[in-house]
Amino acid sequence: MADDIFERVKNVVVEQLTVDPAEVQMDSSLQDDLQADSLDLVELMIGMEEEFDVKIDDEAAQGIKTVRDAVEFISKNVG
To answer: What is the CATH number of the domain that holds 23?
Structure first.
């Protein structure tokens, strides 16, 4: 299940940030490794909310720094 969530998160990240899929790893930092700025991060959260039909509040969004953080949040809050 986590692999499926990772692939879906990866797809959202690739689409929103227009990065090479090979760059998106579990431990990739959204800001440091993938060069996401604050607007990109907001758009990423919206993209993930739409993809997984989940609400990511501001506090949770601030805790999502890496791809792994996003996968773990979604794993805990979907289904």
So the answer is: 1.10.1200.10
Q: pLDDT digit string (tens) for 2-34?
A: 789 999 999 999 999 999 999 999 999 999 999
Global pTM? 0.93
Tell me the catalytic residues.
37
Amino acid residing at 77: N
pLDDT of residue 76: 96
CB 10, CB 24: distance < 8 Å: yes
Q: Are 34 and 28 in contact (CB under 8 A)?
A: yes
Enclosing domain of residue 53: 2-77
Which amino acid is residue 41, in one-letter code?
L
Q: Mind spelling out the 3-state secondary structure of the chain?
A: CHHHHHHHHHHHHHHHHCCCHHHCCCCCECCCCCCCCHHHHHHHHHHHHHHHCCCCCHHHHHCCCEHHHHHHHHHHHCC
